[in-house]
Design a protein that fits this description.
Blueprint lengths: L3 E6 L4 H13 L2 E4 L13 E9 L2 E2 L3 H4 L6 E7 L9 H7 L2 H6 L1 E6 L1 E3 L5 H13 L11 H9 L3 E3 L7 H9 L1
Parallel strand pairs: 1-2, 1-3, 3-5, 5-6
Antiparallel strand pairs: 3-4, 7-8
Length: 174
């Protein structure tokens, strides 16, 4: 039986929800990132790290990119639909090429409650919508862009427990 740790960093709760589901399915230990020391990572056969996507970064991912793990699996959580999103830029920004060849990354869809955002995050989202998204002509809007416009300012939750299945199946092969 492999010793597995599921570690997460979550701002709005959806990454935490996925981490809880993954830990439960794998009978793994669950840690919020601030509650595990880097020196503990090597005591696990598999470390699964989950972080939300913010401005091209994976929140808290330095914990696992700057400290050794025997086997590392990463999951990201963001608003975009993973089936139609190119994450290559985010991956290149957050991981070295060497590390990317050693790890497996999964992308999951989260949610947002605009009313609970902090002032800075609200301002960033408002600028994105006003200066970029609304200027896209209706005939050129993807379903993703239209969903963002339709739900802007509301609470949306795209989390789906079934979407963790590929990650669970992958970990079982390690």
């Amino acid at each position: 039986m492999k010793k597995i740790a599921v570690i997460y960093k979550s701002k709005h709760g959806t990454t935490k929800r996925y981490a809880e589901w993954i830990a439960e399915e794998l009978e793994a230990q669950l840690f919020e990132a601030s509650n595990i020391r880097p020196s503990q990572l090597m005591s696990y056969d598999v470390v699964i790290y989950g972080g939300g996507l913010y401005a091209g970064g994976i929140i808290g991912v330095k914990l696992v990119t700057e400290n050794a793990c025997k086997s590392l699996v990463v999951f990201t959580v963001g608003l975009a639909n993973p089936d139609s999103t190119d994450y290559s830029g985010i991956l290149q920004k957050n991981f070295t090429q060497e590390l990317l060849q050693k790890i497996k990354v999964f992308h999951l869809r989260g949610g947002i409650d605009y009313k609970k955002l902090g002032l800075v995050h609200k301002a960033m989202m408002a600028l994105l919508v006003k200066l970029k998204v609304e200027k896209i002509p209706p005939e050129k809007r993807t379903s993703e862009i239209q969903t963002m416009l339709d739900t802007y300012g509301e609470k949306v939750d795209f989390t789906d427990k079934a979407t963790i299945r590929p990650l669970i199946d992958y970990v079982h092969t390690l």
